């Protein structure tokens, strides 16, 4: 792929979305030479700091204090742990919704933490499942980042990410907990090179068992264990043994239902168990069509709901209206709710919502969401539900727009700045992480807005999601969202927005290597150019067209389109530098070396005037390649070393490694063993620093 500006082809964009790394300067030996024939190794600068210690993620939530009678299931997990000393072992954990699978694994992981010194990884596949599928490449990307791989070293493709995951997990003693698994292939793709995997789901994973996974079925609690659990919460004097047994029966032995009822009785210390049982029995009759066990859970929620304060009910109704799986107090306030903090505490105490690993985000079990949705539709009239949902959509639209501006600065955008975005973490990295954390909610909100014909926020939100999709390569989400964005722009009568949506959609197909689909989108976008006046929109398309032609080996045609993009960016200094850089790459590919040097030198002069070090680095490397092609290896070496030096100063490990790879090629061509050795040593150091080098196996007696 041709490196360039922010890959929406934006006239004032930043070229470092996927490659910028915060932190200090990377130091180390950069070898300089006056000529290939006589290489002079200059004294090395002070030694580089030691590579950072690999991260030790702890992503599995803390267990609840009370836990009973899962000895048989824990025994299976313990046996699997003993077998995972020198190979990966998988446990297939299945059971009904609300039966306590997540709590079981959280408790066991907490008790066995010393056996996982390299960390715990967690993924809720149900939260990121769309149209029945999961973007496993994104889950892998999240895992390797959690294990310390730098952002600019995470590859784009699923296959490359899988290879990197296997590399960085080799020799590590890890626990990987996959919740919401529906298909054996999901667990296979996310199994590390070593460690223990627990794949939990509601359906039996026979294929995993046939491949050697240890099966464990988590069933409802028996009457004795469930009774012990309730007594631990309530004591011995809140009801008879008969009432206790009936309570367990009505809740189906499911811990989720028992916890909700138990929390209610703890809060209302004078409530007798007999009264709760009577209420549950009455409500069960209206829920029989759901099935015995599901009715038991729903009636338990209904009993708790009946005693919630009004402000807490409003927050609960919001959970039923909100289309996404996660929520924050800020979202609730933006939706117009009051007393949010106390209402949230009430729902936490009632076990209707749970904390996540991120202290600012909360979620609820999908069975709770089902009940909340039913209650919201009964309690709130349609106009209020729609008004609250519109506030939710606007909240995400404005927050995403603010994050986009934090990441990419003042790039060319069609939408105005957000009127109010609330508090958003400062800095590019923090803003990107906010978009990442809200990814599932953002896509769910897009669908909800599209279903209601709220066209403007749909395409605006898509425009703001560009830095997330470009940096993290969520190709499935990227395509799904922008298909909605194209349709919304058409309905909104915005030809400019349609051009932008189709261009960004084309770039998704381009990055996936699906050039025919990319070309089809660009062709459709070009048809709309007659309806717009802003030349920057044409510039977007010409840049994308040039990249597409260059990728297909049509260098002269690419140069033509980059020339058009350069003309369209007249008046935008950064855009001119970027398009001149792209043009230089096309001229190099077309073997038009004299022209390439002229345009690259012109771009470098402009970049120096602008203080644009990232573009100077890229220009230096491309110029070095041109010089090698013209038979000037000494000049090529000087340029490649300059690119490596600039990349080191920016802390861009991947770009420095790219430049040093070229240095190594030049050294090999000249037979310079000293330069090859020095370059190889620095590249190994960079590999460790980037977190992509294999880890030394830990001793198993630690």
TrEMBL record:
Residues 43-55 have a biased composition (Pro residues). Residues 1-11 have a biased composition (Gly residues). SUPFAM superfamilies: P-loop containing nucleoside triphosphate hydrolases, TPR-like. Residues 1-26, 39-59, 679-702 are annotated as: Disordered. Coiled coil: none annotated. Residues 13-26, 679-691 have a biased composition (Low complexity). InterPro entries: P-loop_NTPase, TPR-like_helical_dom_sf. This is NB-ARC domain-containing protein. It comes from Streptacidiphilus alkalitolerans. The lineage of its organism: Bacteria, Bacillati, Actinomycetota, Actinomycetes, Kitasatosporales.
